[in-house]
Amino acid sequence: MLRTRRAACAAIAASATLGVSAAADVAYPTRPIKIVIGFAPGGSTDAPMRVLAEAVSRTLKQPVIIENKPGAGGTLPGVILQSAANDGYTLGIASLGIYRLPFTADIKWDPAKDLTYVIGLTGYAFGIVVPSSSSIKTWADYVAAAKAQPGILTYGSPGVATTNHLTMEQISRKAGIRLNHIPYKGTGETMQALLGAQIDSAAETSAWAPFVKEGKMRLLVTWGDKRMTSFPDAPTLREVGIPITQTSYWGLVAPRGTSPAIVSKLHDAFKTAMQQPEFKQALARYDMEPDYKSSADFHKFAIETMKQEKEILDVLGLSRK
Questions:
Q1: Which of 31, 130, 220, 273 suits a disulfide with 134, CB 3.0-4.6 Å?
Q2: Residue 107, CB-side half-sphere exposure with 13 Å CA sphere
Q3: 7 or 210, which is more confident?
Q4: How is domain 32-123+248-316 classified at the CATH fold level?
């Protein structure tokens, strides 16, 4: 009888705990939400996310705060979420660099298993730019300059082992050139370095778009499968004989174990915000477009991308031994 009574009490306690948890999920959010971005302010991740954050703040009736943590190739949000509470109040942006971390760094977590995928948002457009004052006018000029002085021509990127860096390594091999890589902590820093003539060129997301339009930079080549709408005169890599296409998808993630109810509420709020003209305008500034993925599809993308990234790193000899 005593054992039965104890079991009944335990069941009631467990039910009460679950009830409190479920109620908390339904009430979410009751305080500000923080989104960690792995790049400096002012880039092609930061600007669109601030627009989304403002729209989601109105929907959820709580402030959504952007916290910039540049460095480590944009992967710090994934690292930070490993020690964050899974209560929905600390989120992060997962970009391509996170999926190659297990193969380039000594980490004890798996991006495909140890993050909760909320919603896929968009992808970067990439290109190689030089200052408008540069004597390099075309991709052919760029290759010629690099071949004339191997290892001297510099290019900036947002960090070592980023998509920008690894793709440039592939491009260099295909073009038969050797470049000098200068890593920065984010796209904003790279753009300022190029504007300040600290580097010869930059391999970057389309954060350069406003500067190209203003005549401060020259776009030599883009990395997509077709020419960019805003820059129809710039050829793709394939058009200049480099058989490479590269984009970099990103979206919102939460700590592992975040409840489905919270994930659903966040997903729906961000999906609604993606339809706002302000978000589309913020992306258009960088020649990007909304590219929605559900929580399940975004997670599937992560799993597939990790396999692809390992293959690329193995080919380049950059996988951690």
A1: 130
A2: 18
A3: 210
A4: D-Maltodextrin-Binding Protein; domain 2 (3.40.190)
